[in-house]
Write a structure and sequence with these properties.
The complex is a heterodimer of chains A (280) and B (106). With 280 residues, chain A is mainly alpha-helical. Chain A contains 16 helices and no strands. Chain B has 3 helices and 4 strands; from the N terminus they run βββαβαα. In chain B, helix 2 runs antiparallel to helix 3. Classes of the chains: A mainly alpha (280), B alpha+beta (106).
Chain lengths: 280, 106
Amino acid sequence: MSAIELADVVKNVRDLPALPLIVSELISSFERQDVSVGALADKVSQDQALAAKTLRLANSSFYGLQCKVKTIQQAITVLGFDSVRALVSAAGIIDNFAGGEQSAFDFKAFWRHAIGTALCAKSIARIANLNQDYGFISGLLHDIGILVLVTRFPEQYQSAVAYRAEHDSYMLDAEKAVLGTDHAVVGRVLAEHWKFPPLIQRAIANHHAPMQQDLGDVPSVVHVANAIVHAMDLGGQDDDLVPPLSAGAWDSLRIDAQGIRRIFRETESEFEETCQIFVA
Amino acid sequence: MHMIRKIKQLDLDDAEAGMVLSEDVLDGKGGVLLPAKTELTDALLTSLSRRGIDSVWVVNNDVSEEELREERERVQQRVEHLFRKCRNDRTCAVLLQHISAYRLGE
C-alpha cells in the first residue's frame, strides 16, 4: 500500500532541512514595507555564491540592462529592491533543493518547468497589472510539493510516476490515485510551515484549482502560467500534457490576443538563459 | 518545439548584400536604424557594424515550401498531442488556438 497519510507529510515537512536564514527572511519580508535595503545588501554580499548568481541574473537578458551591475547594492539601485529580493530568494531555494543524491527523479527537468512558469507568471503579472515579483517567485515554487514527495517518499512517488505513464494521466491524478494525496496539498503544508506570505501559499495550494478569492490575482496568474508552459512544450517531455484551464481564472486576467503573444515571446526568449544561470 | 521559419537571425558577419531584413534593426534605445524589408548592401552592413549592431533578422530563402509544409504539420500534431486531454475544454481550446497561431506564424 503506497498511500501517504497527511500526518506523515506534516511530520516529514517538519524534518526537512530549514531554508537558509537569509532566504526565509527574504520570503517572509515580501509583505513588509519596513525592510532595510542596506541590511539586505550586506547579508547577500556575504554569501558569495548567492551574490554571484544574483548578479549573473541581474546582468542577463532577463532585464536587458545597458550597463552591467557589479555589486548587490548597485543591482538594488538599478533593478529595485523587490526584484533583487525575488532573484535572491529564487537562487537560494533552487540551491537548497538541487537534488544531487542518486534519484530516479529528474531534478533538472523539474526546475526547468519551474523556471518557465516563473518567467511566464512574471510576464502575465506585468500585463495584468499585478505584482511581477510575487508572480515570479510563486511560479517558481508552485510545484514545490513534488520535491517534498520525491525526497521524503521516493518509492511511493516512483509508483505514482509509473501509474501516470501507464494511464497517460495527469501527475496530479496519479498522485491522488496512488498516494491518496497530491503535490498541491503537500505544497500547501510546506508553504505554511515555511511561513510564506499568504498570497504565495494560495498560489502554491490552488495552482490546479483556483478559488473565488484567487480570481484576478497571483494564484490565477500561476494557474494560467503553468498551463502555458506545458502548452509551449518548454519541458520537451514526449508525454507531456496541458492541464485543464479554469475559465474563471483565465477570464479574470483579461489578456487580449496581443498580450498573449507577448507572453509567449517573453517566456521563450528568456527561458534558456535563465535555466543556464539557475541550474548550471 | 522549434520550427523552421521563413526568417532567421544572423551574426552581422554572416549577413550578405542582397539579403532582405525581416525585422526592423533597432539601436540600443529602440530607435529604428533600418526598417524591415530593406535590402542589405555592403555600405549598409558597414554602417550597421559601425553602430555596434551584431546580429540581424533576415528573410530565409533556404527553406522550400515543401519543408515548410511538413514542418507546420509536425508542429500542429505536437500541439494537438499536448492538448489531448483537455481539447474539449472551452478555455483550453482558446489556449490551443493562440499557441497554434504563434507556432505557425499566422
